[in-house]
Amino acid sequence: MRVGFIGLGIMGRPMARNLLKAGYELWVNSRSRGPVDELAACGARAASREELAAACEVIFTMLPNGPQVREVLLGPDGLAARMRPGQVFIDMSSISPAVSREIAAALAEKGVEMLDAPVSGGEPKAIDGTLSFMVGGRQAVFDRCRPLLLAMGSSAARCGEVGAGNTVKLANQVIVAANIAALAEGLLLAKRAGADPAAVLEAIRGGLAGSAVLDAKGPMMVENRTDPGFKIDLHIKDLQNALDTAHQCGAPLPLAASVMEMLQVLHARGLGGCDHSALAKYYENLANDTIFQKNKE
Q1: Which of the residues are catalytic?
Q2: CA-angle at 285, arms to 280 and 291, nearest 5°
Q3: What is the pLDDT of residues 41-80, one digit of tens each?
Q4: Which of 93, 107, 115, 117 has the fewest beta carbons closer than 10 A?
């Protein structure tokens, strides 16, 4: 199967590499030439958008937000004008469900199927191929494309029609944001009260407070690491999409709104490129203290 992939950023590059490892004929396109050359050296074919639209049975996008996906598909030189009946477009970006449905409607007029299939797991799981896919679209299209998704992830669940994948992803991002904030709050409490945050993580890992968030983000807070697996600015984007969607459907999101303001403070301090575990620094600033033990650095 000839597969196209547009968007080779932090997540897209290792995801595309895993498609290559699985044996798919991969055509790649990205704004930055470096990742394209890197994938080409591994066996992918560098291609223009026009070439992807003409040649590939399935085309993936992994882009920052809805405006970029809309431009790639529906812009003046967009894929939609060049695609043909029988092709499938799979957007793995985390965007507004409304934008997913808009693009799907435009593609349907061309006889092109679409899945919205955002992911959870961040860069580490993109690298080792254990991402989780939340998918919206027709069952038959999902069944056909599921092996492609499982070349990049360990699970792929159909959640409903187009737009459902991004709806589930927004819920995921609200839950993750609240968990990271609660983790930072609890660890700072422990530190101020005289406990070792690293020991706290070990003690609570097996209990009800244990979670994937604790396992992935707790050590980063304790070790004062902010190298991005998922950037603060990207989580701001996701929460903005969640809040916009919530306002449209009348869902109250007071916790998400609170964490959004914390993230905005960090963005204003120049930390938008840090991992979202740097939410800990919001609490550290309030307390004029640190979660990490300075004498253990």
Answers
A1: 169
A2: 45
A3: 999 999 999 999 999 999 999 999 999 999 999 999 899 9
A4: 107
